[in-house]
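hi! just following up on the protien thing from before. the input was this:
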Amino acid sequence: MSTERSAATDPAIDAALVRRLVETQFPQWVAQPLELLDPAGSDHVIYRLGEELAVRLPRHIGAIGQARKESEWLPRLAPHLPLAVPVPVGAGEPGFGYPWPWAVSRWVDGEVATVEALADSPDAAVELAEFLAALQRFEPGELPAQGAREDLTGQPLAARDQATRAAIAEVDGVFDAAAMTELWNAAISAPEWDGPPVWFHGDFHTGNLLTVDGRLSAVIDFGGLGIGDPACDLMIAFTLMSPGSRAAFRAALGVNDATWTRGRGWALTTALSAYTHYATVNPQVAAQTTRQITEALIG
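and the predicted 3d structure came back as:
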């Protein structure tokens, strides 16, 4: 999830820059055409490179560690997951005024998943549960000491308390502030994850799911990948699903009451953050986050 920053500090990225970076660092792909992917999310500018590849450049300083993380872990995760993921094939270096590392990954075909197509599908809900279960089962072997793996350490839900309460107050009148406060209090008071730390995607919402011919095909954007409490990934149940498919998802994943309540809290806080930052300038974000807040309150 993106960190707040000043747009004035973000580097200018255009096709000419990307072409020069590719030409000098990956000359084997110099003849491949470039095509801007728009929209591409708030963390990266993405260009399709030929038919098989994608170039991803961080837009802001908060996203600069994602390429290294994905390069390290996605090739190891991919064989264990039931849906495709974008495996990195090249690590780019700063150049021509662009200040940060960037990446080239395998292109993953598909259309962004939509509520209209999948909300009422218990089959899709179970597929997503199976993906998360496979991710949580992944055992990479011995990890370095915790202090050396700060990029994999998930933020606790309680760390978002002040910002979430401020957002609730800000949208009072648009949404039911009393109901949101009740849910938030329950979420941060719920028993903490008492199992072993497991892997989570960290930004598991419709924009990071792809479909082919109406069926789930891939999961993208693993910049939030981490190890710890998997409750954050339950936001997909409120972003995408209706109550019926949500019940199938929960049953397939075997989520207990405390984890489900924390998951509702994650859905609420992430939706509020996006709504307060983008709803006035992006009607699509306004609609998506309104749905997520509403569904989180339903449970």
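The first strand starts at residue 34 and ends at 37.
The chain has two domains: 7-106, 111-141+148-298.
cheers
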